[in-house]
Amino acid sequence: MPSAKTLKLILYEVLQFAALSVPIFVVMERFAGLVRDVRGQDQTAYWLVVAASIAYVTSVTLLVWVPIKYTILKQRRFLREVTQWRPAALAYLVLCTLPCFAILIASSKVQVDRGHRLDHFAELPISLVLFSLICVDVIERIRPCRLTGQSDSLDPDLDYPGPILTHLEQVSTVSSQLQPDEGHSGHAEAKNGIASGRWQHFSGSPGRSTLSSRAPSTAYLYSSSSHPISYSGHLGFLWRRDGRSEMFVDSFLFWLDTVEMLRVAEEASIFYSHWVFPIYIVSFLSTFRMIITPHNSLLSTAGVLLQDFPFFVIRVALIVIFGSVTPLLYPMKNVLVTLTFIYFTFLVRLRIFKRRSMF
């Protein structure tokens, strides 16, 4: 009987292989049907394209995919030191996403050259390719984690450093709580009976400040801890969280902008024009962000250079030429992300922004 670790490994590898092969088969079969219709119901052309898809999947699986996965799992040679990028994700993009996007562009070119408008590959192929891409991303993120029990906070993919909302009660100042005959330490109680605790004066930190007694009855501050305060009671389940489920949400949000860009390419007026080429090219370039590990500092720069800035240029051009083919929210998001990245990364380092001001 195989162990749970082995079963989990088999499950992950089967899902990733399905994400590699199924989109290619679906897109190629759709393209084969298109070629058959364009060539006057030529069944030979249809089966040649289908046979080519089967031969391609078999070849890349045996010659590329399996050796790469074996090398990664065994941590052989140079892959032993790889920690900042994901080789499996790179292999998937080159072996699956790139051919699928190329076939989609070829389908548009074939119909435009023949003067037909038979199939613009709406919905199913695009959604399947993107869903498989998201599945591979989720598997790579959740691979180090356990699938049963509580989340392990030591897992690198589950450690989300950042501000956590913490509830604080009102407290009085130190001077109002210390008795005159006491030194610099002792027990103190708030006059309103809400909070009590031990206050100690540190001689090495004379400038240490405390909460003012003029503060409101309740205050919300940001804690540096990565784990929120737990709540008990009948509604305590509302405060429960698990990083493993949040991975799925983060992955779908990570690809939301690319999904919208490819949705625009499904418009018939755009799909049968030359604008389908830059749309699929910039969309494919944006997928290279998946190669970088989730918490790598390079991910922000890659997001601006590979997604937000080129997407903004393409969307503005599409709106000018084709009208309202995409919601204004997306170009606004692209320009805002780009400008804030430039400002907080480069401009704030200039001398003029280092001066004291009201900001």
Core attributes:
6% strand, 359 residues, transmembrane, transmembrane helix, mainly alpha, membrane, Uncharacterised_FAM23-like_TM, two-stranded antiparallel sheet, 4 strands, Transmembrane protein 236, two-stranded antiparallel ribbon, 55% helix
Rg result: 28 Å
H-E string: HHHHEHEEEHHHHHH
Main beta-sheet annotation: 2 strands, antiparallel
Q: N- to C-terminal separation?
A: 64 Å
Residues in helices, as a percent range: 40-55%
Number of H/I helices: 11
| Structure summary, number of beta strands | 4
Proportion of strand residues: 5-15%
If you average the pLDDT, what whole number results? 78
Which structural class do you get from the secondary structure elements?
Answer: mainly alpha
How many structural domains are formed by the residues? 2
The side-by-side strand order for the widest beta sheet comes to: 1-4
Unreliable residue stretches = 153-166, 180-226
How would you describe what is shown here?
It comes from Solea senegalensis (Senegalese sole). This protein has 2 domains: 4-149 and 247-352, no CATH class; 162-225, no CATH class. The chain has 11 helices and 4 strands. It has helices at residues 4-38, 43-74, 87-114, 124-142, 174-177, 243-254, 256-265, 268-271, 276-286, 298-322, 329-345, and strands at 164-169, 185-189, 196-200, 218-223. Strands 1-4 form a two-stranded antiparallel ribbon. The chain has a two-stranded antiparallel ribbon with strand order 2-3. A hairpin with a 6-residue loop joins β2 and β3 (196-200). α1 packs antiparallel against α4, α3 (87-114) runs antiparallel to α9 (276-286) and α4 runs antiparallel to α6. The chain starts with a helix and ends in a 14-residue tail after the last helix.
